[in-house]
């Protein structure tokens, strides 16, 4: 990707090779997409809101696997202007539309994912398991709010796994970690684990299998994510309870067959 002025609204041109790589691999890592200073300015407010809205307070030893993996706060854009700035970034939304090869994208949800020091692994999983949507034209941008070396547990991807149908019925869990680790190794999927510099981001498709290691560092791994969907996507079919929950919480008022044009799902680009 060509380096450009890394603001929140200006255009970040993608090469055709970037779009091809995303379609081939199911994800792409992009360097210098956002200005590090811009992220440093917004991180304290975002972190304050995450800690305020977080509902997991048990000692690490008493938590579930996913609670050990991260503190998770959704719809943060409604509570923080700094989060709103990232979620509504036209620069990021334009990249998402280009990678998905759609004319426009709307917001599915945002999530802050904070992996505390001594936090556990994020098990292998595919996000689309949870999403009550009619197609796979969805992707997530992963935005670290600090440099993220390997010891902090950056996101890693199984290259090409968006075309691998095994494990799509597994929610994130100890079981998904064991079963997918074995299956991905057996099928010889290359695993891409790399650190992120502040300002780097990655985008991955909904069916791309990914995980993150433990945070063995001394600082929390602070990350914002934005999930984009084709603006013309529709709700359904619903095949598991988790999808009904997402529909009720993240797309209130939308019903089966609807375009989820709700106040929580605005069009972000164009």
From TrEMBL:
Signal sequence, renumbered to the chain: none
Name of the molecule in the record: Phytanoyl-CoA dioxygenase family protein
InterPro entries xref list: Phytyl_CoA_dOase-like
GO molecular function, one term: 2-oxoglutarate-dependent dioxygenase activity
Keyword set, alphabetical order: Dioxygenase, Oxidoreductase
UniProt keyword Oxidoreductase, yes or no: yes
Pfam families reported in the protein's UniProt record: PhyH
Organism: Phytoactinopolyspora alkaliphila
């Amino acid at each position: 990707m060509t380096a450009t002025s890394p603001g929140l609204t200006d255009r970040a041109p993608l090469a055709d090779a970037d779009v091809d790589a995303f379609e081939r691999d199911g994800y792409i890592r992009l360097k210098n997409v956002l200005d590090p200073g811009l992220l440093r300015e917004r991180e304290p407010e975002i972190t304050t809101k995450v800690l305020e809205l977080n509902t997991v307070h048990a000692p690490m030893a008493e938590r579930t696997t996913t609670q050990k993996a991260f503190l998770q706060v959704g719809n943060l854009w409604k509570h923080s202007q700094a989060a709103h700035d990232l979620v509504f970034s036209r620069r990021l939304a334009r990249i998402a539309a280009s990678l998905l090869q759609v004319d426009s994208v709307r917001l599915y949800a945002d999530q802050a994912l904070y992996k505390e020091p001594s936090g556990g692994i994020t098990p292998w999983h595919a996000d689309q398991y949870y999403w009550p949507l009619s197609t796979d034209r969805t992707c997530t941008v992963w935005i670290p709010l600090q440099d993220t070396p390997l010891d902090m547990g950056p996101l890693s991807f199984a290259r090409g796994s968006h075309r691998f149908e095994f494990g799509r019925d597994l929610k994130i869990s100890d079981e998904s970690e064991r079963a997918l680790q074995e299956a991905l190794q057996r099928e010889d999927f290359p695993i891409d684990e790399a650190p992120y510099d502040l300002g780097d981001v990655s985008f991955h498709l909904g069916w791309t299998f990914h995980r993150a290691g433990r945070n063995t560092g001394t600082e929390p791994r602070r990350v914002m994510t934005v999930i984009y969907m084709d603006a013309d996507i529709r709700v359904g079919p619903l095949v598991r309870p988790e999808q009904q929950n997402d529909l009720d919480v993240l797309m209130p008022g939308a019903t089966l067959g609807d375009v989820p044009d709700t106040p929580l799902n605005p069009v972000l680009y164009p």
